[in-house]
Design brief:
There is one protein chain. By secondary structure, this protein is α/β, with parallel strands linked by helices. The chain has a domain of 171 residues: Vaccinia Virus protein VP39 (Rossmann fold), CATH 3.40.50.150. It is built from eleven helices and seven strands. It is globular.
């Protein structure tokens, strides 16, 4: 599935909401992914910079690319030191062998694998890393499984993982994968807002979206504790590929 212009910019109007409710990435996952010598990192399909937050915290130099200027504006407000560019993975405006690593947080499933793989390989230095991350709600928790049923398992990233994982093509080569668990405490309003940031909700008709979010709120209110809080577990899936040296 390629990232069309319409799809690429569909998240911009909710950029501030996306930044507020979407989970971050475990620092240990970033440390596992990136070699110690990887100083120059391109975060591609960066969104509002949820993955960049963790990469910047390691002291690395980050460049950010996204097709949606509205998403990049949120990142720029948080990290003015990060250079940003409006671009897609299939057409990156960088010289050959510019980066030690290129990472995608929650975005490779929108990339055309052959075109994206070739372009990432072009901008990577020999021996460089392609790192792919996905935060997925952990449906081993019963109420989270119920939420997945309610939303119809329509998340593109979940469908991709269920189909066997990300497709990456030569010259990039698979290296390793790992999973990292984390738990967030949220309230019911945040749960509703979180579902509202997914593509299937954004692209639904107004009536469909209203019905879906009403059902999500009813579920959240039913399973919340006495303080109105929910424990939302995530599993971060990380896949590392390398460009041969």
């Amino acid at each position: 599935m390629t990232w069309s212009t319409e799809r690429a910019r569909s998240f911009g109007p909710i950029a501030e909401l996306y930044e507020r409710v979407r989970p971050g990435y475990p620092r240990e996952a970033v440390e596992w992914m990136l070699p110690a010598a990887a100083g120059d990192v391109l975060d591609c399909g960066v969104g509002t910079g949820k993955l960049s937050d963790a990469v910047v915290a390691t002291g690395r130099t980050v460049t950010a690319a996204d097709p949606d200027p509205g998403m990049l504006e949120v990142l720029e407000a948080k990290h003015p030191e990060v250079a940003t560019v409006v671009a897609t993975a299939e057409k990156l405006p960088f010289d050959d062998a510019t980066f030690d690593a290129v990472v995608f947080g929650q975005s490779w499933h929108w990339v055309d694998p052959p075109r994206g793989s070739r372009e990432v390989a072009r901008v990577l230095r020999p021996g460089g890393v392609l790192g792919l991350f996905w935060n997925i709600r952990d449906a081993r928790e019963p109420w989270v499984a119920e939420l997945a049923e309610l939303t119809g398992h329509r998340s593109a990233d979940e469908l991709m993982l269920e189909a066997g994982g990300p497709v990456v093509t030569p010259p990039l080569e698979f290296d390793a994968s790992a999973e990292f668990d984390r738990v967030e405490s949220i309230d019911v309003d945040t749960l509703v807002d979180l579902v509202a940031t997914h593509g299937f909700a954004i692209q639904a008709t107004p009536d469909e979206r209203e019905r879906l979010l009403d059902d999500v709120r009813a579920l959240g209110e039913r399973v919340a504790d006495a303080d109105g809080r929910l424990t939302l577990p995530y599993r971060c899936y990380a896949f590392r590929f390398r460009l041969p040296a």
